[in-house]
Amino acid sequence: MAKKKDTLKDLNEFMKNQPAQSGEEKEDYLSKKPTRLAEVEALKSEIKRLDDLPEGALNEDEIANLINKVAKSHELTSRQVLYRVCEKVLTQQKEKEGSDILLENLIIYLQHQDLIMEKLKS
Length: 122
Known about the structure:
Layout: H1 7-16, H2 40-51, H3 60-73, H4 78-91, H5 98-121
């Protein structure tokens, strides 16, 4: 019978075998303290600031109407225009987070899905 694998132990062994960075001692990876903590207070203040905005201040309806108008004038679907807008916004980000990369990959997938469906219809 095959031996059951333990992913965390494998990761621990892998990290122990990595070269130590300057000023860092070799220790058990799983018992190490995190080197970078989330900025919870900054996130809380940003969410609070968004909650304090008056209703309609972000103009979601106007942005959605603009996307629909652009789509009609260029004979595209509103989704295609939205994907392009999202791509532009993400490319303007200086520091990307994991969710940004995930969103970029999702947009690429969805764009190709539309093309496949169009080819199947014709």
